[in-house]
Amino acid sequence: MSWPLVRYVLTAAIRDRLVMAVIIALILSASLSVFLGSAAITEKTSFAVVFAGSGLRLAGVLGLVLFTVFFIRRSFDARDVEFLLSRPVSRVEFLLSYAAGLSVLALGMTLAQGLCLYILNPQAFSAGHIAWIVSMAAENVIMANTALFFAMILSSAATAAMAVTGFYVLARLMGQMLGIIDSTGQYKLVYQVMEYIIQGISAVMPRLDLMGQTSWLIYDFGAPENLGAILTQGAVFAVMIVLASLIDLVRRQF
Fold first, then answer.
1. In whole angstroms, how far apart are CA 27 and each of 39, 138, 145?
2. Helical (H) or strand (E) element with 81
3. Is 155 helix (H, G, I), strand (E, B) or coil?
4. Terminal Cα-to-Cα distance of the chain (whole angstroms)
């Protein structure tokens, strides 16, 4: 891993005003959640926290995905990648450095999200909030590296952004899809085929629906062992997606 390349990615985020844009987006999300929560008749603070959790989650993922996709595609279009690889840096070192830099950005995004939640209601900050922040760190790292993968294999930034968005929606809905399959008729052939397909997809997809649950922000987090399983799943998938990106870059002909 090359630390200058890691700093290059972080510098690019600052140069593209990602930090400023994320701060503005998080502030707007938190402010909107407070406004919507004030419309509730009772439990105004709980409503605001729930809205804030969802808004901060979407704002964070959107910022990471858009920056990663357009940064990588701009680097290819401007021949920055070819120039960097012409230096004494291997392709493996190059990609791992980029993945590490994007992961650092993802962790920084998570800290900003957690700070916003804490500012909203510091008295109610509990183990559930900490579990939410930790699981969001795993989700942000996964999405940053997934965006890296799609930006590497797809030549269009818009197409890559749409692919990452579809991946995120599918990963968020995987639990609901499995539940629907289980609740439908098990004796019909079409449902059995759909069940096999969905279960096969779920075996290689991260269960993002298990991460960052807003119920943790209200009812606390009572099963620490579940958090370990979530983090293990996130780590395994992050490694897999980075390896897939590495294979594509090593096989690519410039």
1. 19, 22, 25
2. helix 80-86
3. coil
4. 22
